[in-house]
Amino acid sequence: MHAHRGRDVWTWACAVAIAAELRRDLLLRPRARLLLSGGTTPGPVYRALSKAPLEWSRVDIGLVDERWLLPDDPDSNARTVRSQLLQDHAAAARFEALTLAGRRIEDAVAAANAHAQLGASAAVLGMGEDGHTASLFPGSRDLERALSSRQAYVAVDADGVPGAQGWPRRVSLTPAGLARVQTRLLLITGERKREVFEAALRSGDVKRYPVLAALDAAHASPLHVHWCE
């Protein structure tokens, strides 16, 4: 747990931590890969990260999950990444949207799983106040299947789940996919989300708090949680 004194400190500390993972891999490999979440919380971090002096032309950007929307839809995670990160230095990165016009959701999952074979330097995760991460929602009819899947990505139907906010059809990273990521970072802000995360730790119930999938991924390195009030 990394607790920061304020939003500005949190923003830049998160950006520096992500940039460090990419820089390390770029020293060792021809390309680095970064998986990102949508939502409003990571936006300031992405804007700060875009200014990092990295060889962005050697960085591939993928998504942790996506609503079943076209990538230019204002409510898509792809749109968030394009508008918040792919600017300044980071404009040179190669971005892989999960959805494309004319692509079936089965095709999107297959393409995501093909890319996942490459692994990833880091994944930036978020958490909702219901304890979900990626598109792994408590109470979702597909949660158990997603948690036990051997595939890195699956299609999920979160119909009737409040946290899905009216977008029930989604493509999501799974615990199996997280296990292929070298470093996992969970970015949360506010007392309420810290309380939810601590409740998840006390519970140990991944079906009630799917964020625990990030903690329990079959991985030797710890989950890095960056929090501020």
From TrEMBL:
Glucosamine/galactosamine-6-phosphate isomerase domain span: 13-214
Enzyme class: hydrolase
Pfam families registered for this protein in UniProt: Glucosamine_iso (PF01182)
Source taxon at top rank: Bacteria
Pathway annotation: Carbohydrate degradation; pentose phosphate pathway; D-ribulose 5-phosphate from D-glucose 6-phosphate (oxidative stage): step 2/3
One Gene Ontology term of the molecular function aspect: 6-phosphogluconolactonase activity
Cross-referenced InterPro entries: 6-phosphogluconolactonase_DevB, 6PGL, Glc/Gal-6P_isomerase, NagB/RpiA_transferase-like
Any single biological process term in GO: pentose-phosphate shunt
Catalysed reactions, semicolon-separated: 6-phospho-D-glucono-1,5-lactone + H2O = 6-phospho-D-gluconate + H(+)
Entry EC number(s): 3.1.1.31
Annotated keywords: Hydrolase
Hydrolase as UniProt keyword: yes
Similarity section: Belongs to the glucosamine/galactosamine-6-phosphate isomerase family. 6-phosphogluconolactonase subfamily.
NCBIfam families: pgl
PANTHER family assigned: 6-PHOSPHOGLUCONOLACTONASE
Summary of the function given for this chain in its UniProt record: Hydrolysis of 6-phosphogluconolactone to 6-phosphogluconate.
The protein, known as: 6-phosphogluconolactonase
Organism whose genome encodes this protein: Lysobacter silvisoli
